[in-house]
Amino acid sequence: MVQSSFYELCGILASVCMILGYLPQSIKTIRTRNTDGIALPTFLMMGVGGTFFMLQGLLHQPDIIWSLFLTNLVTTICCIIIFGIKIYNDYFKKRREQGKK
Question: Which residues constitute the domain of residue 47?
């Protein structure tokens, strides 16, 4: 019983730390649309990894690991949004540079 409670507490604390550590940078990037310092492959892999962690949380037997699922849901959604902004910025940056030539 004590081990199970400690296990759950660790999962919840990890979830809170991950979201609080990840969300401020995501919000800043979404607000400013500045993606110059972001590596596209990194965000792609983080989004894919988060998706697999969500699946792991959902498919865990006998119970779903909600802390694992919800944390990675939030971080994956942020990754997808930032990835989209990065693709958009890079595409239009290339078009602007080509138009100046």
Answer: 2-100
